[in-house]
């Protein structure tokens, strides 16, 4: 009987910690970065061509323009992504667009609200792309889960940046 009480006590503590996570951590933030041996203008232009996204994010099944603004900021796109056999439809909104310096994207993907802030800097022909990302959720349970997957989110975005580097450095050399 004592063992059951101990087990139930441990389970109760774990459940309380899990649900407290959603109260304490409102947003999961992380950073990823890659350096590319190309001028910033070329890197920025290739990065922002919608038809190229499938070259470094293989899960993207389709990319459709919903609303394209002349200044790009405020433009909205619809993406369909294959996530482990499940199709997820998300919207992408361009929140900020400063040529050769910055692009900020906001994604709404079924309970996941994600902001990707890409900063482009160049030094001596080497362009560095820095991603400052943040995730949160409308769903309380999802908000409790996100902090535990921070490493997975960061690793996935780092892979995408590495894929972009391979794509852009390999594309022009062929």
Automatic annotation (TrEMBL):
A Pfam match = Polyketide_cyc2
UniProt cross-references to Gene3D superfamilies, sorted A to Z = 3.30.530.20
Q: Where are the transmembrane segments?
A: 6-25
Xref: InterPro entries: Polyketide_cyclase/dehydratase (IPR019587), START-like_dom_sf (IPR023393)
Instruction: Extract the SUPFAM superfamilies matched here.
Output: Bet v1-like
Q: Is Transmembrane tagged as a keyword? A: yes
The UniProt keywords, alphabetically, are: Membrane, Transmembrane, Transmembrane helix
Kindly indicate whether the keyword Oxidoreductase belongs to this entry: no
Which CDD domains does this chain map to? SRPBCC
Can you say what this protein is called? SRPBCC family protein
Q: Which organism is it from?
A: Polaribacter batillariae
């Amino acid at each position: 009987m004592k063992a059951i009480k101990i087990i139930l006590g441990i389970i109760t503590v774990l459940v309380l910690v899990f649900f407290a996570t959603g109260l304490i951590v409102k947003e999961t933030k992380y950073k990823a970065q890659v350096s590319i041996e190309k001028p910033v203008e070329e890197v920025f232009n290739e990065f922002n061509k919608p038809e190229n996204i499938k070259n470094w994010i293989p899960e993207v099944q389709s990319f459709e323009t919903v609303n394209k603004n002349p200044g790009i900021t405020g433009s909205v796109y619809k993406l369909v992504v294959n996530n482990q056999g499940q199709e997820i439809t998300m919207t992408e909104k361009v929140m900020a667009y400063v040529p050769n310096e910055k692009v900020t994207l906001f994604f709404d993907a079924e309970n996941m609200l994600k902001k990707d802030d890409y900063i482009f800097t160049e030094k001596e022909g080497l362009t560095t792309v820095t991603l400052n990302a943040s995730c949160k959720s409308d769903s309380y349970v999802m908000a409790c889960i996100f902090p535990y997957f921070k490493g997975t989110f960061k690793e996935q975005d780092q892979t995408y940046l590495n894929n972009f580097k391979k794509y852009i450095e390999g594309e022009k050399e062929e």
